[in-house]
Amino acid sequence: MKLSVIASFYNEKESLNKFYNEIKKVLDEVNQDYEFIFINDGSIDNSKEIVEGLCKKDINVKLINTSRRFGNQECIFAGLKFMSGDAAVIIDTDLQDPPNLIKKMLEKFYEGYEVINMRRLKRRGENAVKLFLTKYAYKIINIFSEIKFPENAGIFKLVSKKVVSIVLNTNDHDPYIRGLFNWVGFKQFTIDYEREPRLQGITKFNIFKTLNPWNEVVRGITSFSMVPLYLPLFIGFLMSFISFILIIYFFLQKLLVDDVTSGWTSLILSILFLGGLILIILGIIGIYIGKMFEILRGRPKYIVESTVNIETKDKIN
Predict the structure, then answer these.
(1) CA distance 121 to 124
(2) Stated pTM of the model
(3) pLDDT digits (tens, 9 = 90+) for 162-173
(4) Is 299 helix (H, G, I), strand (E, B) or coil?
(5) Distance of CA 137 to the CA centre of its chain
(6) How many Å apart are CA 41 and CA 51, to the nearest integer?
């Protein structure tokens, strides 16, 4: 049995060598055949050169360079396509996810589980605002989604080659990879753990400086649910019902009291409320139309510029 370690990185020069050494130490302890697949997401520091050095030192280390920065999930898809193992561990290179947990994941894999999810009970070293937003992002996704996902289960997981093959064949243009591995079903197991703070470098997923965290929420909802498209219909019926009640109320007020409630404030507030509601509805519909447009346009999820220790002529996928 061969294990593929899939790790995407962007400007992680401080942690790459330590990451490789820590993972390899764990795999050697359990006498596990392995390969590392590093995906360079357009790094602008010398991260690429560091991994190239690892490739020269260890033939089992492989490198995929994308032509520009495409994003973490797209890079993971590239790694999954080029893997040759019987199972894959997807893990970040910042060592916040303890490598030693791979032993437990392998134990569950050998017991027959196809997907082993890792659920973070604590996330040390992360600010309270990010933790709060992340917590409720998972809850929002689960409210709308037809598939229920383990809350706080990140990208760190082990998946079998069978599951990887199915996920790759879904041809999902804008994949929510955390959700896809739950969507496929099969025998799954969840291991709880406490996430460590980042040892070196800074996070590349700043919740206030990048769109990535917000894109993840939109991906999670729109990839597995049509509920947002039905919400405008429900809200429209609700607003029509309220309007009908108000018409009857004002009609009876004029008929019986001869004193119709007046005031520009209520009128302007009603216009602003309905205008905002219409814009929200159009925005929801626009997101789905945008996803349809991207599918019709047919652009690849990522472009491979070059590889090391991988024989392939396929540069685009």
Answers:
(1) 10
(2) 0.67
(3) 988 888 887 666
(4) coil
(5) 11
(6) 13
> Do residues 174 and 180 make contact, with C-beta atoms less than 8 angstroms apart?
no
Angle (deg, nearest 10), helices 161-168 and 72-82? 120
SS3 for 186? coil
Instruction: Name the residue among 276, 268, 77 with its Cα closest to residue 164.
Output: 77
User: Residue 122's beta-bridge partner residues?
Assistant: 194
pLDDT at residue 97 in the model: 85
DSSP 34: E
Mean pLDDT over the full length of the chain: 76
C-alpha dist (Å) from residue 186 to 102, 112, 202: 20, 10, 36
The predicted structure's pLDDT at residue 119: 83
d(CA 168, CA 180): 10
Contact assessment for residue 86 and residue 5, using Cβ atoms and an 8 Å cutoff: no
> DSSP 3-state assignment of 99?
helix
Q: Identify residue 222 by its one-letter amino acid code.
A: T
DSSP 8-state assignment for residue 128: H
Furthest CA-CA distance within the chain: 91
Give 103-154 pLDDT, tens digit per residue: 988 999 998 899 888 887 776 656 566 655 666 566 666 666 666 666 666 7
The winner for highest mean pLDDT among 225-229, 282-286, 294-298 is: 282-286
Please report where in the chains the tokens 């919400």 appear, as a residue.
231
